[in-house]
């Protein structure tokens, strides 16, 4: 309730302040307020329509797309509140002067349509920001009715204050008001940044940095006032992930420093330029160190894998082919570096005597075969449906096995008609206990390596982007100083010529 109340109050009061300034100016100059109120009404109606449409669209989407839309809305809301805080910080003191100048120009032209448009655009801008910001806050709120009540109460309070300022009965220290609410909104926006990374993960967009940091259940137990403060107001969950904490800090700390650092502590022009260059250098060095120093975990597996029932298997990899040594055979496999297979497990003889045949049948004479009347040798036709599969990690074997069936058709050797039989091929596999243990070690290594992409790729990218931003500010500041110096030089030259003439 508190975040939505402050949002409604802050955004509503900005719109009310603009409208009250325009209304006061018009009343002082004896102009009609009808066009102004029409513009205000149209802005309010369109803002409400935007909020309703966004909410309806989100509710109609599947779950994953709802999470994606929540992420987008949250980031847009953060963009709006950041721009709002900066805009009010630089324009609040001149707002009344600029608005009255624009209103005077509109009255001079003999029309109030421009004033109605000004009111419409002002209310629409604040209303659109409010709709997006409140929708993003509703999504992360623990109680939707409470959040709605807070928003309505804040907007009504803003309307009352705006009316009071218009009538002259309410005096506010706007600088202090916007500073206090700005600090609170920065905290709320930082929570929205954190929540955007969580919904982005649920939407499948953010997969790195999902390791747990701290368990805040003890600090904010479910249903408690502290939970409402941390989760509802500040947007901090009880189980923040690594990337969520980094994003929260990366937004909150710079925003608070830029907005609230006292003027006496701000560096001068020359020192600020040196600090930007030093900051860019530190960011580049930190990025390089992270890329080079953060290790990529690897699973450690033995050179050979035990076979079920005894024996060992090993594999030698050469590009997209591999040679598997198992069960006394060398089998050539093809694959992609981790998964390997072969369509059959070796050549089969085209002629079989009875002794060789028994090696395939497990020393049992096949049913229907009379070795006295048909002693062989036989012509053998094979339908080999066996396969060999293997899984590797680097040059180590994780799992391997045979599967399938072998169909043998015998003819000749005294047989009056062909005999068809299905044989159980000599099957083998890597010990299941070893395969399970090795697979778990590989999966853990892959998960840790993927999680460390945050530190070896994404954080370095963010640091390099920060370095470029700082250097861009250095270049821009130098260009501005150069242009100012040129203008000053031209002015001095003109003054000097005028004095000579």
Describe what you observe in this structure.
The protein has helices at residues 2-28, 34-59, 63-91, 95-108, 113-140, 144-167, 174-202, 225-233, 242-260, 269-293, 354-361, 432-451, 453-500; strands spanning 305-306, 312-318, 321-326, 329-335, 339-342, 351-352, 378-384, 387-393, 396-403, 406-411, 419-423. Strand 3 and strand 4 form a beta hairpin. It has three domains: 2-266, no CATH class; 267-295 and 454-501, no CATH class; 305-451, no CATH class. The strands form two sheets. A seven-stranded antiparallel beta sheet has the order 1-2-3-4-5-8-9. The chain has a four-stranded antiparallel beta sheet with strand order 6-7-10-11. The protein is built from 13 helices and eleven strands.
Break the fold down into its secondary structure elements and pairings:
Elements (H helix, E strand, L loop, with lengths): L1 H27 L5 H26 L3 H29 L3 H14 L4 H28 L3 H24 L6 H29 L22 H9 L8 H19 L8 H25 L11 E2 L5 E7 L2 E6 L2 E7 L3 E4 L8 E2 L1 H8 L16 E7 L2 E7 L2 E8 L2 E6 L7 E5 L8 H20 L1 H48 L1
Antiparallel strand pairs: 1-2, 2-3, 3-4, 4-5, 5-8, 6-7, 7-10, 8-9, 10-11
Question: What's the gist of this structure?
Answer:
This protein has 13 helices and eleven strands. With 501 residues, the chain is α+β, with helices and mostly antiparallel strands. Strand 1 and strand 2 form a beta hairpin.
- Through-space gap between termini: 71 Å
Average the pLDDT over all residues and give the rounded result.
80
Instruction: Report helical residue fraction.
Output: 55-70%
Biggest pleated sheet:
7 strands, antiparallel
**What radius of gyration results from the CA coordinates?**
38 Å
Structural class: alpha+beta
Q: Quick one: overall form? A: elongated
Question: DSSP helix count?
Answer: 13
Strand content: 5-15%
* Number of beta-strand segments: 11
Query: Looking across the biggest beta sheet, what order are the strands in?
Result: 1-2-3-4-5-8-9
Count of structural domains: 3
- Reading the helices and strands in chain order gives HHHHHHHHHHEEEEEEHEEEEEHH
Which residue ranges are poorly predicted, with pLDDT under 50 across at least 5 consecutive positions? none
């Amino acid at each position: 309730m508190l975040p939505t109340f402050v949002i409604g109050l802050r955004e509503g009061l900005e719109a009310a302040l603009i409208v009250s300034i325009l209304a006061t100016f018009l009343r002082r100059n004896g102009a009609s307020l009808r066009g102004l109120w029409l513009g205000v009404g149209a802005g309010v109606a369109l803002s409400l329509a935007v909020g309703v449409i966004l909410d309806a669209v989100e509710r109609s989407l599947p779950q994953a797309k709802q999470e994606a839309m929540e992420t987008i809305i949250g980031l847009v809301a953060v963009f709006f509140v950041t721009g709002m805080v900066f805009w009010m910080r630089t324009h609040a003191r001149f707002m009344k002067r600029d608005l009255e100048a624009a209103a005077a120009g509109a009255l001079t032209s003999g029309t109030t349509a421009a004033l109605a448009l000004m009111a419409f655009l002002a209310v629409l801008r604040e209303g659109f920001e409010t709709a997006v910001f409140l929708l993003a806050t509703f999504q992360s709120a623990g109680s939707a009715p409470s959040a709605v009540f807070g928003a309505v109460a804040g907007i009504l309070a803003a309307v009352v204050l705006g009316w009071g300022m218009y009538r002259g009965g309410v005096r506010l220290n706007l600088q202090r008001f916007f500073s206090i609410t700005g600090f609170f909104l920065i905290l709320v926006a930082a929570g929205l940044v954190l929540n955007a990374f969580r919904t982005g993960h649920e939407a499948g967009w953010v997969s790195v940095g999902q390791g747990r940091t701290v368990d805040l259940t003890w600090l904010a137990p479910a249903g408690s006032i502290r939970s409402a403060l941390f989760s509802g107001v500040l947007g901090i969950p009880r189980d923040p992930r690594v990337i969520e904490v980094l994003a929260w800090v990366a937004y909150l700390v710079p925003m608070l420093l830029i907005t609230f650092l006292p003027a006496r502590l701000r560096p001068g022009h020359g020192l600020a330029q040196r600090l930007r260059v030093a900051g860019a250098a530190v960011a580049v060095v930190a990025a390089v160190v992270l890329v080079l120093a953060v290790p990529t975990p690897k699973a450690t597996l033995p050179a050979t894998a035990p076979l079920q029932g005894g024996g060992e298997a090993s594999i030698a990899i050469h590009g997209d082919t591999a040679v598997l040594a198992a069960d006394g055979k060398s089998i050539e496999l093809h694959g992609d570096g981790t998964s390997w297979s072969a369509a059959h497990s070796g050549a089969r003889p085209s002629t079989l005597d009875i002794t060789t045949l028994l090696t395939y049948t497990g020393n049992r004479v096949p049913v229907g075969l009379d070795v006295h009347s048909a002693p062989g040798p036989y012509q053998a036709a094979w339908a080999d449906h066996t396969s060999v599969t293997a899984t590797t990690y680097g040059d180590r074997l994780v799992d391997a096995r045979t599967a399938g069936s072998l169909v043998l058709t015998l003819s000749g050797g005294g047989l009056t008609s062909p005999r068809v039989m299905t044989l159980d091929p000599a099957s083998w596999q890597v010990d299941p206990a070893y395969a399970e243990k090795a697979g778990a070690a590989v999966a853990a290594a892959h998960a840790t390596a993927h999680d460390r992409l945050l530190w070896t790729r994404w954080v370095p990218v963010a640091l390099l982007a920060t370095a470029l931003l700082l250097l861009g500010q250095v270049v821009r500041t130098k260009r501005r100083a150069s242009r100012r110096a040129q203008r000053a030089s031209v002015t001095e030259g003109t003054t000097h010529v005028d004095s000579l003439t």
